[in-house]
Amino acid sequence: MDRNGQCWCGSGKKYKKCHLSFDEKMDSIKLDELKGHILPPRSIIKTQTDIEGIKKSAKINDAALDLVASRIKAGIDTETLNQLAHDYIVEQGGIPACLNYGGYPKSVCISINHVVCHGIPSKDTILREGDIVNVDITTTLDGYYADASRMFMIGKVSEEAEKLVKVARECMEKGIAAIQPWGYLGDIGAAVEQHAHANGYSVVVDLGGHGVGKKIHEEPFVPHVGKRGTGMLLVPGMVLTVEPMINIGGYEVYTDSEDDWTVYTEDDSLSAQWEHTILITETGVEILAK
Ligand code: MF3
Ligand code: CO
Ligand code: CO
Predict the structure, then answer these.
(1) What mean pLDDT do residues 143-156 have?
(2) Is residue 280 a part of any domain in this protein?
(3) Domain tally for the chain?
(4) Which domain holds residue 208?
(5) Cα 37 to averaged position of ligand 1 atoms, centre (Å)
(6) CA of 221 to the centre of ligand 3 (A)
(7) CATH number of residue 154's parent domain
(8) Which ligand does the CA of 108 lie closest to?
(9) What is the pLDDT of residues 165-194, one digit of tens each?
């Protein structure tokens, strides 16, 4: 690539002022074959334009979650919350990305108690005092995706449930805090797993986080278990979700055979999950959707 020509990332800057040092670093790592590094494909390295697009989408997504937060309470059915988020996202010019994704029938996922994820909202599902509820929303705006989820406690919940919700949030935070530019994907799972196990909980392995940007699910798959210093190299410009699903009982899960979506804990134990979309920067991490 011509040092004085335009950079491949589309920034409009000269290559030497933009991704030249990045590429040199990648090349030197590539030569370091003994370490067996897995390098991210260039296709998932975001440009400044991409990042701005994801941020705009994230703003709508965050506000949709805020709106749900303001209305969620005992007695409300989950379809009402689904419609609320759907209408808001559409009003803002976005698209609720889950609707019709792989045939998914609703605009958001609402997962209660022993439902791990992908709970389908319904008029017949009424929230009750004591429930712990995950609401997961993904928005597309101008082709850019943002993905986040939060837990809600309905009225007074058991001490056991409250602790799970708190620790699950800490697991996500510790996973994010473990991310460093030029670190490794396995650093995330190692941090999540350590905190979950220290509290006697287990971590779901069948589902994980993911790259996100121009598609809802991009490379890499982000495991929430793992070993430090292993897996794909994490480099500036990658956008990922960290979204650990933490169970009080075993890590095993199964999918509803009738609706083909709802994921439950195998042993019916409670499960909790929080999700942020994050950008890896030159110096650390920036949270894009929360
Ligand atoms: N928001 C989910 C995630 O975190 C994706 C749900 S896909 C759906 O990856 F089809 F189930 F909605
Ligand atoms: Co996600
Ligand atoms: Co999500």
Answers:
(1) 98
(2) yes
(3) 1
(4) 41-289
(5) 29
(6) 13
(7) 3.90.230.10
(8) 1
(9) 999 999 999 999 999 999 999 999 999 999
In the reported structure, the alpha carbon of residue 275 is separated from the centroid of ligand 3 by a whole-number distance in angstroms of: 6
Q: Which atom of ligand 1 is nearest to the CA of 261?
A: 11
pLDDT tens string 53-105? 999 999 999 999 999 999 999 999 999 999 999 999 999 999 999 999 999 99
Atom of ligand 1 nearest to the CA of 137: 1
Can you read off the two tokens belonging to residue 126?
């009424």
What pLDDT digit, counting tens, does each position of 129-145 carry? Answer: 999 999 999 999 999 99
153, part of any domain = yes
Q: Is residue 23 part of a domain?
A: no
State the distance from the centre of ligand 2 to the C-alpha of 161, rounded, in angstroms. 23
Minimal CA–CA distance to 146: which of 15, 46, 264, 72? 46
Q: What distance in Å separates the CA atoms of residue 238 and residue 19, rounded to the nearest whole number? A: 14
Give yes or no for residue 50 CB within 6 A of ligand 1: no
What DSSP string describes 47-110?
Answer: PHHHHHHHHHHHHHHHHHHHHHHHH--TT-BHHHHHHHHHHHHHHTT-EETTTTGGG--SSSEE
Residues near ion ligand 2 (CB < 5 Å) are 147, 241
Residues whose Cβ atom is located within 5 A of ion ligand 3: 136, 147, 275
Q: Above pLDDT 70, what percent of the chain?
A: 98
192 belongs to a structural domain: yes
